[in-house]
Amino acid sequence: MTELQVHNFSISLDGYGCGPSQSLDEPLGIGGERLHEWIFPADGDRAPVDERFVSRGVEGVGATIMGCNMFGPVRGPWEEFGADWTGWWGDDPPFHHDVFVLTHHARPRVEMAGGTTFHFVTDGIEAALEHAREAAGGRTVRLGGGVATVQQYLRAGLLDELHLAVVPVLLGGGERLFDGLGSALADWRCVEFAPSRSVAHVRLRRAAADFDTMGA
Amino acid sequence: MTELQVHNFSISLDGYGCGPSQSLDEPLGIGGERLHEWIFPADGDRAPVDERFVSRGVEGVGATIMGCNMFGPVRGPWEEFGADWTGWWGDDPPFHHDVFVLTHHARPRVEMAGGTTFHFVTDGIEAALEHAREAAGGRTVRLGGGVATVQQYLRAGLLDELHLAVVPVLLGGGERLFDGLGSALADWRCVEFAPSRSVAHVRLRRAAADFDTMGA
């Protein structure tokens, strides 16, 4: 079965996946851009372990799913706020495959340069995963953000791997990843701990299905 | 001014300083002992960076403050539960200096072997700090746990340094360090990020006083 994986999801030391007071001007919340500085270091020189994880988020990935907040600042019907909005990434987004955007508001798909096509899925996270698996053609499906979207897939038991980059900054508020998950992570384990000079990479995986049922 | 510092405070990836359901049998909560395995590795062989941080928690430390839950499982008056209780550490505790235990219940001080004396402070965290500073004789005062005690000192603005070891395990519940702190950490910064093979060490410090007042 094609796996659903989260790659390079940055959280602050105090557990936030974005900063407080998200807005049009601060789409990542106040201070939230500090979560991603390790991906775009000021000196342009990524540490080898960081480079490896960034590459892992692209190689072998055949389709992407994201929440509508990651796609854009649009809240509500597209007509009202952003009928022309085609994401943060310009005319040639860095995906180069089918991207499934979770939304409550239907919209025709948008074909971009470079092979990226945005599909707008209104019938829920399971339907989005089904579409993405088909589109991925045997490759991995990557789940983008934001926090609420990752939580939804975790709670539904649909995620197979979660790679976090713990960034040594304090945001003091925002959306916390490890919140309201109940026992959704009870069977999850750390399978890799690989710190770089700037972040601590942690790869978590759901225990295999035969482990899940051994106690039953 | 003698600094008040927290050393080697372990938190899980999901932010907990101890596991869920603390009890006499599980004083660190379920799974909580996994937070401290890096200090006592199974092969007995600490990584150099871990060794450096463990040493830093001893060298130059002249007195210790801890919450009563760290001292023992005693809840309520000593007569009822533990008039003979002298801590988890045996006859010769590893402190070798004055230790101030925060409690609501007065009790005469207890002198142990090796130079450790337990004092029981009933007049609050500021009084405990004052006593500890006197006892430390110019050396650092170390603040032990638990989570609630560290939070109290953080909220009161009395802590100078907080060294965390982020452990790549999930506890799923327990006491969360970064909770209910409001803006207490607004002026705090990461001054060192030093991962080992097993944990990510993060040293946080409060900005100097002249920074605090610059915006005023």
Short description:
The first copy, chain A, has 216 residues and is of the alpha/beta class.
Mean pLDDT of chain A: 92
How much helical structure, as a percent, in the residues of chain A?
10-25%
Q: β content of chain A, as a range?
A: 25-35%
Low-pLDDT stretches of chain A are 210-216
Q: What overall geometry of chain A do the principal axes of the alpha carbons give?
A: globular
* Structure annotation, total helices of chain A: 6
Amino- and carboxy-terminal Cα gap of chain A: 23 Å
Helical/strand content category of chain A: alpha/beta
Write the element-wise H/E pattern of chain A from the N-terminal end onward. EEHEHHEEEHEHEEEEH
Q: Could you give the count of β-strands of chain A?
A: 11
Strands across the major sheet of chain A, in which order? 5-6-4-3-7-1-8-11-10
- Per CATH, the architecture of chain A is 3-Layer(aba) Sandwich
Radius of gyration of chain A: 17 Å
Account of the protein in words:
Two copies of one chain form a homodimer. With 216 residues, chain A is an alpha/beta fold. The first copy, chain A, has a single domain (4-200), classed as Dihydrofolate Reductase, subunit A, CATH 3.40.430. The first copy, chain A, has six helices and eleven strands. Chain A has helices at residues 48-56, 68-71, 78-81, 125-136, 147-155, 209-212, and strands at 4-12, 16-18, 61-67, 98-102, 110-111, 117-121, 140-143, 161-167, 175-176, 188-195, 200-206. Chain A has a nine-stranded mixed beta sheet, with helices on both faces. In chain A, a hairpin with a 5-residue loop joins strand 5 and strand 6 (117-121). Chain A is globular and about 45 Å long. The relative contact order of chain A is 0.24. Mean pLDDT of chain A is 92; it is low at 210-216. Chains A and B meet through strand 10 and strand 11 of A and strand 10 and strand 11 of B.
